[in-house]
Design a protein that fits this description.
Layout (H helix, E strand, L loop, with lengths): L1 H9 L1 H12 L8 H17 L3 E7 L3 E8 L9 E7 L8 H4 L3 E2 L4 E3 L3 H20 L8 E6 L10 H9 L1 E6 L9 E5 L1 E10 L3 E2 L10 H13 L9 E9 L5 E2 L2 E10 L2 H12 L9 E10 L6 H17 L5 E4 L5 H6 L4 E2 L6 E2 L7 E3 L3 H14 L1
Parallel strand pairs: 3-6, 3-7, 7-16, 8-15
Antiparallel strand pairs: 1-2, 2-6, 4-5, 5-18, 9-13, 9-14, 10-12, 11-13, 17-18
Helix pairs in contact: 1-11, 2-5, 5-11, 9-11
Bound molecules: zinc ion.
Length: 380
């Protein structure tokens, strides 16, 4: 299989150019026009490879892109689904202080390069290789690129699930753990808002007429903290809290945002019940609780392990070691795995610094990752 690595090695400079083009299009989530444009750019590339393109515009968000490749198969056969996202967390203008750049050590830097514009490019390149080298596949392949993954996949989830139901496997282009480690399991995620409502009063003149919403919220935050169970991998973190208006006013309102992570659906449901069931502690205080589970867990199932082992064997044929791990962060792989579809995540290019200023990829990893993705599309 080293011929496939050689193929991508020969293309490395042009692949890097393609990555640069995508990185230099800033595509913050909810930047609708920018996300429409990048979907068009990638759609043209995929259309040139004879992909059947479906664009699904989402007002206020951007456009989801599906490209179907039959490769001589009946499109109704269970497909290989490859999933990525076009949006990034970086605000427009980040390029000014973090431009695309190559380092002497062989890294390529830029906002969104690791998460996940390089992943999108290697997927296009893998499809290109199958076409130009006339490689065989066992199934049709669909590439789904969404525009709202970084903000919870609200509008893309139905598409991800619709495609997952037609799929034999799902391959997710998210970045690997540094070292090229793929992801076979992810925690589920819940997001909650807690609003404590008290009663305003003058802190000096009428303190006893007030109901202090900050105190009420504080009681609730301690209860939430007590739900942490690190042994079971259940975490409940109050990430944001706000309360009060002025120092001499008993606050009428306080609020918090809560991040919840868990390994099993049962733990997720239990935590939802606990949080939804929170009761006020202070007399005359009220609580409003919103939110729920946002992504179901992706357990490291037999299915996922078998898929990983297949990928590991392909990587060994290509001359590199592929390790796996489970992580606390979520992706669209959570949705495919929850439907029982074998899912392998973290198939993007090796690097580091997702969502951080040092975000980069390792340029020398591009050919082998592209080769691995090609072999997965061929053999699954
Ligand atoms: Zn991502």
């Amino acid at each position: 299989m080293s011929s496939l690595i050689n193929h991508f090695n020969a293309l490395q400079a042009s692949i890097l150019d393609s990555i640069r083009v995508l990185v230099e299009r800033e595509t913050t989530s909810r930047e609708e026009a920018r996300l429409n444009e990048i979907a068009d750019v990638v759609a043209r590339q995929l259309s040139d490879l004879s992909g059947k393109i479906e664009l699904t515009p989402q007002p206020g968000y951007g456009t989801h892109l599906r490209a179907r490749f039959d490769f001589g198969h009946d499109r109704s056969e269970p497909q290989v689904l490859v999933i990525g996202h076009l949006d990034t967390v970086w605000p427009v203008g980040t390029l000014d202080r973090m431009p695309f750049r190559l380092t002497p050590e062989g890294a390529a830097h830029g906002p969104g390069i690791f998460d996940m514009k390089s992943g999108i490019v290697i997927a296009v390149q893998a499809l290109n290789a199958i076409r130009t080298l006339s490689l065989q596949t066992k199934r049709p392949v669909t590439l789904l690129l969404t525009c709202d993954e970084e903000i919870g996949s609200k509008t893309s989830r139905p598409l991800v699930e619709e495609e997952a139901r037609r799929s034999a496997v799902a391959l997710v282009l998210e970045p690997p753990i540094t070292g090229g480690v793929v992801k076979t399991g992810r925690k589920g995620i819940g997001v909650f808002g807690i609003r404590a409502i008290g009663r305003a009063a003058h802190a000096g003149l009428d303190p006893r007429k007030g109901v202090n919403a900050n105190v009420e919220l504080s009681h609730q935050i301690l209860r939430l903290a007590a739900l942490n169970d690190h042994e079971r991998g259940v975490t409940v973190s109050v990430g944001v809290m706000n309360g009060g208006t002025a120092i001499n006013v008993v606050p009428a309102e306080a609020s918090a945002k809560v991040d919840v992570r868990f390994w099993t659906p049962e733990d997720g449901e239990r935590i939802v019940r606990e949080i939804r069931g929170l009761q006020p502690v202070l007399a005359d205080a009220q609580l409003e609780i919103t939110g729920g589970i946002n992504r179901p867990p992706m357990p490291r199932s037999e299915n996922n392990i078998a898929l990983y082992e297949h990928a590991r064997d392909l990587a060994a044929e290509l001359g590199f070691e592929l390790r796996d791990a489970v992580v606390g962060g979520g992706s669209d792989g959570n949705f495919t795995a929850a439907l029982g579809v074998p899912t392998l995540d973290g198939l993007g290019v090796d690097g580091a610094g997702a969502h951080a200023d040092h975000e980069h990829i390792i340029v020398s990893d591009i050919p082998r990752r592209a080769a691995l993705l090609t072999r997965l599309m061929q053999t699954l």
